[in-house]
TrEMBL record:
It comes from Anas zonorhyncha (Eastern spot-billed duck). GO terms for biological process: homophilic cell adhesion via plasma membrane adhesion molecules. PROSITE patterns: CADHERIN_1, CADHERIN_2. SMART domains: CA. GO terms for cellular component: plasma membrane. It holds the Pfam family Cadherin. This is Cadherin domain-containing protein.
Amino acid sequence: MASARQVLCLCALLCVPRVRCEPIRYSVAEEGESGSVVANVAEDAGLTPAQLSARRARIASADGRQHFRLERATGRLVLAERLDREEMCGRSLTCTLAFELLLENPLQFFRVEVAVEDVNDHSPVFPGERVTFKIPESSNPGLRFPVEAAQDLDVGSNSLQAYTIPPENEYFSVSSENLAEGNKYIELVLEKPVDREEQPELLLSLIATDGGSPPRSGTTQIHIIVLDANDNAPTFTQKLYIGRILENAPAGSVVLSVVANDPDLGLNGDISYTFSQAVSESQLPFTIDDRSGEICVTKPLDFETTQKHELSVLAIDGGGLSGMCNIVVEVVDMNDNAPEVVVSSFSSPLPENTEPGTLVALFAVRDRDSGVNGEISCALEDQVFFSLRPAYKNYYELVTMSTLDREETAQYLVVITAADAGSPPLTTTQTFTVDISDVNDNAPIFNQTSYTMFVRENNIPGVLVGAISAADSDAGPNAKVTYSLRPVYPAEQDPCSCISVNSENGHVFVLRPLDYEQVRQLEVLVSATDAGSPPLSTNVTVRLLVVDENDNAPLVLHPAQDSSPPSSELVPASAEVGDLVTKVVAVDADSGQNSWLSFHLLRATDPGLFAVGSQNGEVRLRRPVTERDAVKQKLEVLVRDNGQPPLSATAALSVLLLKGLSQEHLPQQELAVQDEDSSLTIYLIVSLVFVSLLFLTSVAAFVACKVFKRKELKGGHMLYGTGNLQSSLAAGAAAGTLPHAYCYEINLTTGSGNSEFKFLKPILPSVPPQHSGTVFLRMLTSSFFFPFSFLCVFKHCLMNSP
Ligand SMILES: *[C@@H]1O[C@H](CO)[C@@H](O)[C@H](O)[C@H]1NC(C)=O
Ligand SMILES: *[C@@H]1O[C@H](CO)[C@@H](O)[C@H](O)[C@H]1NC(C)=O
């Protein structure tokens, strides 16, 4: 300042001589204290301080404001007040205060100009302490954001010179452009993209610095809010999600959840999930919650169809960016499929004569499950008749184990159980209904081992006498039984003509009347034959017994009724009461009751003299013979059988009472017997030998006759009782008497109705031998009948010989 003053002073000195045209110039810094000296204006005007006082120097300014004071004593110009250049001159670069120094006596003035010099007394000031910007993230570098400039009231070099941003900020720089009037246009320039997700907002200071010395600065805070841009796609936490779910999981079961993240804000970070499958979602068994990313099952899964589902899930944010992940859903097998039995072939019905080991059915088992759930084992319930045999792979064969019998079991239900090895196991049963077809393996069986039927003799032709029945346990035609008569001997062509059997129902008929006295029983062979192929048959014997009817009257044999004159019995007058006179011998061709004979005295010359034994026909003396009794007595004995109604015959007898003969006449035999025991023995022996010979002869003759006749024997009639006859004869021969035997008819001519019969008469003396007379009589009667029987046989042979 001093130098400046000197310059000014020099200038003033130079100017003064030239009529004060030039003003005296000073300069003073603003903000000087009041009273501080600006310059010694008196000296510069060439005046002395005395003159100043004398001439009453004073300062006058145009606006009347007194910024300066003049010290008259010293001639110095001092500041009257604090000067503020900015107030006085504003932003103009020069600020000059002009005034005049007035002097009187003479009036003289000097122009004085004081230039107020700027002092850096103001700092740059921003309009606001804080400025907020919003910039979209990912804006390109170079983007400019204008900032309102700071103001510095100072001028010149004291005015605002530069803007700076602290170097630690890497995103922005500041650019300023000088405008007119010293103004600057300031912009923040984006140097590098901002990522909201990294730095959602920035705070930086913008510093404005002026050129003063020392420089002053002003700061404003710049707050930068980074606006979100959808610059982030959703990303899944995993690229691949693997879930496992049981195949029978109910609909709605959660398989897994996917999670995607999007760091963007708001809508840009708003993720929704969808399947990215090309297939429509309705076909997928899954659904995804678009908000939570939870994947659920919508319908039951089937391991057997799909073991693994592969999906892709898209996560889309509100800005349309998307991310994708892959999902693998493994379906876990459950034992949810029962084994299946598939029958390949099955043969039914099966003939009952099927060999054991025959294949009945071939079937396969399978299970759609896997692992142990698909391991199948097969079992058979019936192990007796059938068995299971693995064939190949999963095929099984059902074969028969033993022989089958339709008659025992006509149908088998073979139950096969297939079970898998799951837990719990699932089972399937397959039932084979095996029908057994019939084979003709059973002959008809008669319900009786033999049949005995009865027919009354003299039957009407074609009478039904009974039925035979045979059953065949086979089925169908194999069980259809027909009956037929068989010849008894294979050689015979025609079976008995008098019996017929209904081939359908087995009814047995007798075709023609039978006579008990000719035929007592018939035997025929009937066979029951089924309609199988080949047919099977069974024979059975049907015995027809002819039942006797009382159709024969008794026949009196002794005494002979046809002899004339009738022979007479001789009775000595000395005979005692009870002595046997004679015996009426009669037979009845009937049998049983019908042949039981009873004897009754019908009439007599003297009914009181004789008694007839009703059972045995013996005529005995009832009382002693007297002189008055007629010599010739006639008796009639009624012989009656026991039939219903009874038939009878009469026997006429004549008895001569020998009065003179007395005791000794008749018993000549008795005497011989009594006196001559030895001769009687000889008689007996002779008789026995004779009888035996006779018997043997008759047997021989009969046998010969029988052999001879054998070939000519015809028809169903049998020769009955020959055995009995022989044995009876033999027995009689052995015992010396005849047994109480039946009379047998022997008639080999067929169809003959006449009752030509021979007989053996049953005679048995009912009275035990009391003396030799009766014994002898017995012998006589016995010996009488053996020849008779012989004759009977012999005659028969002769008659039937051709
Ligand atoms: C055998 O069958 C016949 C005819 O059907 C019948 O009359 C008879 O009583 C049966 N016999 C037996 C022992 O069942
Ligand atoms: C049945 O009898 C006939 C003839 O008499 C014979 O040929 C057949 O062999 C017999 N059948 C049986 C099973 O005995």
